[in-house]
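Q: Here's a chain of 219 amino acids. Please give me its 3D structure as tokens.
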Amino acid sequence: MSDDIDEDGDNKDPAAEKQSGKPGHKKPRAPRKVTQQYIENSAAYYLGRFASSKAHLRDLMMKKVHRSHHHHGTEIAEGAKMVDVMISKFERLGYLDDAAYAVMRARSFFAKGTPLRGIRFKLARQGISEDDIEAALSALGAEVEVENLDLAAAFKLARKRRLGPFREPDSDARAERREKDLATLARAGFSFDVAQQVIDAPSVEELELVVAPTGAMFI
């Protein structure tokens, strides 16, 4: 038997790889019937490629349960128990850690120029608890060492999108684009006050002093 592993973490069946008769096309394969081993293999394969919260991983595995229910008559409640057993096991082994995941994702969202309320919203959508969200934001604040995380995030987004002081040093061009630049930051979720501080900053250097007056390495 082949030792290759498919996207579900199971051994590939060479017969299932045969073409349907049309060049470049593979014969459609019915979803596998879920078992405890199948759920754990699938979850392990996914976690080997992507970080995940418990809630997100549970949702992914429950989709497999529902497909198995449709094609094989698997009881939803039985499949859900398998998923819960896997979640508990992986959490015990350290493969799943919502607190650590929240810190990592908060750092990533901030680096992309996401405001705090946007980070909260994104983490909550991924099933992270309020306590873990608060802890992640506290850890982010301690790491970044700036007084206003939103202002620092807006700085990052403005730099990325070349808004306000990051535009070419042409005062007329900046003035013409001011309202659109403010609207860009507003759509990203920043308050008017934060957007105005960034877009109306005289220069990048002066904006840096406002964002990090102590010289913190937030950039």
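Q: Can you summarize the key feature?
A: Residues 1-20 have pLDDT under 50 and may be disordered.
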